[in-house]
Amino acid sequence: MGNKNGKFIKTEQKDLSEDYLKEVITTTKLVSHAMKKALRPSGLIVKQFNGPDAGQTVFHYHMHIIPVYNGAPNKNHGYEMEKPEKLESIAKRIAAEI
Fold first, then answer.
1. What is the pLDDT of residues 51-92, one digit of tens each?
2. Residue 20 backbone class (left: φ over 0; alpha: ψ -120 to 50; beta: rest)
3. What is the pTM of this model?
4. What is d(CA 12, CA 40) in angstroms, rounded to the nearest whole number?
5. How many CA atoms lie within 13 A of 4 on its CB side?
6. pLDDT digits (tens, 9 = 90+) for 18-42
7. HEC assignment per residue over the chain
8. How far is it, in rounded angstroms, from Cα 83 to Cα 7?
9. Are the CB atoms for 35 and 44 separated by under 8 Å?
10. Which of 47, 41, 46, 48 is nearest to 97 (CA)?
C-alpha cells in the first residue's frame, strides 16, 4: 500500500521489525492501563486485523483496544462512527491517566 507521498505503508505484522512491534505492544499496554483507570471496564479486547478478509478497514498497522462492560452488548469492531464529541471526551479521560 502507498500513501500520497508514494511511501510504502506497512499494514501486516509480517512486514514490521521486531523493534517496531515491541514499541506497539509497549504503547498498547500503556493505553490499556489508562483505559482501565479512566473507563473502568470489566475487561478489554485487544486485537489487530491483517487484510480485508480479516476485517481490516484502515490500511496501516494499528491495534484496537476495546473496553467491554459486564452485561453490555459486545461491539467488537465499529462500522458506525461514534459522535466526535463523545470520542473527544473519552480520549481526554484516557489521556489524563497516561
1. 888 888 888 888 999 999 998 877 666 667 789 999 999 999
2. alpha
3. 0.80
4. 31
5. 0
6. 998 999 999 999 999 999 999 999 9
7. CECCCCCECCCCHHHCCHHHHHHHHHHHHHHHHHHHHHHCCCEEEEECCCCHHHCCCCCCCCCEEEEECCCCCCCCCCCCCCCHHHHHHHHHHHHCCC
8. 32
9. yes
10. 41
**Averaged pLDDT of the chain:** 86
Q: Using CA atoms, how far apart are residues 40 and 19, in angstroms rounded to an integer? A: 31
The grid coordinates of residue 35 equal 483505559
